[in-house]
Amino acid sequence: MMELQGINFTRLIYDACQRHPERLALAITQVQEGELRSQEHCSYKQLAERIGSVVAGFQRLGLQSGDRVLVLMRVQIDLYVLVIALMALGAIPVLIDRGMSRKRMMSALRSSKAQWLIGTLDIVRHWWKIPALWSLRRFAIDGKTLGVGRMDVPVSAKWSIPKEFAGDAHGLISFTSGSTGAPKGADRTHSSLLAQHHALRAHWPDVDEDRDSTCFPVMVLHQLCCGISTILPAMDLSRPAFCVPELLYHQFESERISRFSAAPACLQTLVEWASNQHVQFRSIRALAIGGSTISVRLAEKLLLVFPEAAITCVYGSTEAEPIASIALADFLEHAQEDRGYLLGYPAACAELCISAAGANFDDEQDLLNARCPVGGEGEIWVKGPHVLKAYVDQPEATRLSKIISKDGHVWHRTGDVGFMDHHHRLWMVGRYRDRLQWQDQVVWPFVVEKQIDLLDGVRRSALVAVGADWVLALECQNGIPDSVRDVLIAMQLPVPVILVAMTIPVDGRHQSKIDRESLKQILSKKRAGNDGP
Fold first, then answer.
1. 227-286 pLDDT, tens per residue?
2. Given CA atoms 258, 264, 270, 274 in this order, what sign does their dihedral have?
3. Is residue 330 part of a domain?
4. Helix, strand, or coil (residue 462)
């Protein structure tokens, strides 16, 4: 299949600005230390005017189509204005996940091959501390300092119809935190951005009067394409687990928020507060959960706290969003089963292949020949127009994770292991790299952890190998329950398991996934310091 020609993803946003000039496009509230600091908002007409001015400003700087521009700033309206203006010109914004460790962030900066740095002065002024930024042309939108020029933005300039590019032209490069290896730059081409927009809209339909709130900043671009209003939640989006529920409750009520999407850590904080205060989020008609699996306990509380909402658990990744989903009620119906996590039915745009886990394939036919039978566990591969085709400037990572299909799309290796049941539903048993093995027996930590997390008094559990030992880390309310040992005995694990009560580290992006590498390092240090598990 030939790449679509004559595409500019921002044309959808441009058209939304023409259709709904007076409608609220975006509102953002800044929160610091649990208190509201400032609020900004703009209509679609104002958004178009700001984009037009920034486009003119970039043209004055001499920025060219194809230039890579590192954008460093907090989530604010100007962030979206800059990103959209860059893509409209054919330049390529490069975004770095704030949840990364410093080491990973430095690696991403070095591999980005950015030529420009644009941002706000409070961040850009520290350029001299980072060697990877020394060679970039550096500008701030709100001032200047030594080594940083001020971007000259005209007061008023019309945003013309965005020019078009080949569909495979880079649209946006995003480096996400990941959990192992060097950060990879996801190549969001104009055609893949367009395809993901259509896939998301078909999978989670909006209505014209929706007022949406999301904890996922990149989702704002999709919502602007839809022409609906987005009111970002009053919280620090880089620390979703530490939101202030009372602020969100009053914001959702006063702003009449109708849709909400968030990761489990944020929702856990919300439902605990709402349950204690005996309040409900009744304005929400649709709730989407992403970024991680959820516990049964959280799922049950969500039904009580969001009584009017159609609640959906979405499975996807940066490289392929969405892959599958399931209604929360259906998830709970199968929650007690010990086969793993039910992820639901594949998205209409997605084709799945469950193939031999850990195997490397030369081509599509090899992949399909290794397809597992129904119920057979294997690695989850996904194909569709919305699946990103490559990692930028990383051919080896692309080779290991992508297989070109004869229809022009690519198969993407998710790294997750699961199976399809007889109802064509997808289940997941864990990440391939997290498997535990004893002789010829494989144990998937997800399956064990799911059963442990059902127990009263257990907030979260994580089963990992530390040297020759298997260790089960537990976040418990009042010590390790005796029932934990009963579950482990019933599951007939091949080796003894050491129990440790502790705070389990989670990912920096959504604060919802277990950071198993950090957990193993912590436990290894305990052993080395004779404070063993």
1. 999 999 999 888 888 899 999 999 999 999 999 999 999 999 999 999 999 999 999 999
2. positive
3. no
4. strand
